[in-house]
Amino acid sequence: MPYTLTAPASYEEDIRKSRFLVFAQSVASVQEAMDFFAANSVPAATHNCWAYRIGDLYRFNDDGEPGGTAGRPILQAIESQQCDRVAVLVVRWFGGIKLGPGGLVRAYGGTAAQCLRLADKTELVQETEVRCSCLFGDMALVRSRFAGFGIRVVDEQFDAGGVQWRLAVPSAEVDAFVKVLTDLTRGQAQAEIGE
Asked: Read out DSSP for 34-102?
């Protein structure tokens, strides 16, 4: 069962005079991951290496370290800790002693894994996408029920008729949510269940 972080986490370790500072956070989108890296990177550091996994989407960056010695081990740490919807940034200040490729892989992967091990995590629930729309008059009432079902708003658009939502609904709650949506809006709301 995959896990995600319930709160941002950090971890610091000195390895052969190089300082490694790790930041990890749950992210819902690629843009959120990139914003997290931008906000937490340290321009004065020697390297800001990172990786993220969001479902089937993943990316990593070695930021000047030899290819495959930083970003990929961080991604492997995310996967070995069974994490999803997580971004991890490892900031390194070079301390004057070269670690070599194997040492870099162990340092980046090891510090990332330790940060995730110590982080507060929660089990990720299987979600189904539900596209729904309702009138402005029903919007506040419908939205007030999202938390009770554990629903995440993926996208929200407004037009003259009301609101259109793309929602991530826990799969086990889809039928109950659609029934409540229909009842609350007296059958006026439209719902389309994705794959």
From this structure: HHHHHHH--TTSSEEEEEEEETTEEEEE-TTSPTTSSHHHHHHHHHHTTB-SEEEEEEEE--SS--HHH
Q: Could you tell me which of 79, 75, 106 has the C-alpha nearest to residue 89?
A: 75
Closest CA to 39 of 67, 8, 70: 8
pTM of the predicted model, to two decimals? 0.70
Q: With contact defined as beta carbons under 8 Å apart, do 137 and 39 qualify? A: no
Q: What is the tens place of the pLDDT at every residue in 6-38?
A: 999 999 999 999 999 999 999 989 999 999 999
**Helix, strand or coil, per DSSP, at residue 17:** coil
The string of pLDDT tens digits covering residues 81-90 is 999 999 999 9
Residues 6+ positions from 88 with CB-CB distance below 8 Å: 22, 23, 24, 50, 51, 52, 74, 77, 78, 112, 115, 116
pLDDT per residue over 67-103, tens digit each?
999 999 999 999 999 999 999 999 999 999 999 999 9
